[in-house]
Known about the structure:
2 copies of one chain form a homodimer.
Chain A: E1 5-10, H1 14-24, E2 29-36, H2 40-44, E3 51-53, E4 66-69, H3 76-85, E5 89-92, H4 100-114, E6 117-119, H5 128-139, E7 144-149, E8 152-153, H6 155-162, E9 167-176, H7 178-185, H8 194-197, E10 198-206, H9 212-220, E11 230-235, H10 238-244, E12 250-261, E13 264-274, H11 277-297, E14 302-304, H12 319-326
Parallel strand pairs in A: 1-2, 1-4, 2-3, 4-5, 5-6, 6-14, 10-11
Antiparallel strand pairs in A: 7-12, 8-9, 9-10, 12-13
Amino acid sequence: MEQKIRIGICGYGNLGKGVQKAICQNSDMELVAVFTRRDPTQISKQTSVKVLPITEVAQWMNQIDVMIMCGGSATDLPDQVPTFAKLFCTVDSFDTHAKIPQYLNAVDEEAKSGGNVSIISVGWDPGMFSNMRAYAEAILPFSHTYTFWGRGVSQGHSDAIRRIEGVKDARQYTIPVPKAMEMVRAGENPELSTREKHERECFVVAEDGADLSAIEKEIITMPNYFADYDTTVHFITQEELDKNHKGLPHGGSVISCGQTGEETKQVMEYSLTLDSNPEFTGAVLVAYARAAYRMKKEGITGAKTVLDVPPIMLNQNEREEVIKRLL
Amino acid sequence: MEQKIRIGICGYGNLGKGVQKAICQNSDMELVAVFTRRDPTQISKQTSVKVLPITEVAQWMNQIDVMIMCGGSATDLPDQVPTFAKLFCTVDSFDTHAKIPQYLNAVDEEAKSGGNVSIISVGWDPGMFSNMRAYAEAILPFSHTYTFWGRGVSQGHSDAIRRIEGVKDARQYTIPVPKAMEMVRAGENPELSTREKHERECFVVAEDGADLSAIEKEIITMPNYFADYDTTVHFITQEELDKNHKGLPHGGSVISCGQTGEETKQVMEYSLTLDSNPEFTGAVLVAYARAAYRMKKEGITGAKTVLDVPPIMLNQNEREEVIKRLL
């Protein structure tokens, strides 16, 4: 039997735990260790896997094939991934869109110098949704593609509400506007403002005696986060929040419509309905970790994206078998 | 400016015409000639493009980069593609599922001997739907994937009805059963019989004085084609058929549902709603023709499938630009 692909996880939050679950569903992989900036003994209580301080990572260069980077896009990944790319193949879910080209170049240089493959910005958006946008544009160059997100929990928006005075806890859902989706599917190629594409629904637990109308006003007028959207605020108890809004569901749709003739409209749609955003993102990261490992074996090096990876590279089964069964 | 990719079309039925329309939407390509087994002068009346007898194809070896093969899967493609693969890169829409592995091997040998790339079984199913099945299985190895076809015209079933005595013309629609799709989306992983997945609706023009109930009975009891399905037959006039059922719409959905945790269900769905099946298939063929051309330039040879092609290879724009805009 072939040796298993040896995986490391760097960062053990929701995403790292999602990656760990995904590895268990892939029999050609084994999780070697989790690396953390926190105190490893604290995390060891949560899991049976080996937990090590991130400072020891270089010692594992020859025992780990692919390191799955589960830190945040704001500061962790830009700092960690170029360094790690010298030591291991890496996969990450960097999603600061405007900085992707610059990040790709920084990682590319280090991955090449280490003889490794780093696949950046993996997940569902960027990730699978990027694949769908690329397929749609290639097949129908004059099509229009729209991306809708939700219904799903935005952690950034939930955090923004929690920072308001008098707010104890909060959960924010991003919701695509059904009418906008219908117009896109009908091939109307609408010009849609931010407000016309998505709306926001907030479930807020207020402190005892807090001024609810002041909180509501502060939410719906908050620049960047809420001011450009139709926003609904519901005040609920902590018990209700814990009972009904504990999960991290998300999803969305990439809808493309183009014409191939004067009267022939062609609509492509890819939709995800996810009960757990971090677990699905983790599953995508694990599939692309396999691709990174295989690409390196083929002599490829440098920073890649999902767009550079053939679907067959993601599947743990033999090419001939996959072609026979799935083509 | 870079030289355009020089395309040939072999076979000028609905699919060949769809390919021709698609080439017009891709500014990095030019259609050099159409090759036909029929009398070229007859086809020349329909189009301004150069039409040549298929027997002259070998003379065009150095003037055409990719030949898009638009014949049928039953006899044309297995006969033509291995021969053509020696002369040109080729793309085809071979869809006889059981024979794909054998066909792949036959084409692979000839493509390698000619130093060319042949991408087989391109279109939407096999084709884009295969990509979706492969992505789904790679991301969620324990998911269940279901493919539904329709609502759309099946030409094979329409032909089968037309062969019945007393039938002048007919059009058959394949329709997915909504309840089955709902069960799949709900993650129930149902065992679905043929009858439970699709139904068939037939619009039939009978000859004057034909026995309508005999025709209806012959349709709904026809083995393989209709006996295993719930089938509805409508008798209509030729005028109605020409007015309301002239097009070749089709489409379908690939729906996958899997779990990443005990209570976390993840649903992926890819759907196509196509006003013209041959024009969409033609558009997919053209995108993969570009990939065949580029793969050969990279030194790759042999028979490939859509699963072997990274999405970026299909797009006419520069990698950096596509990553910046679509990732």
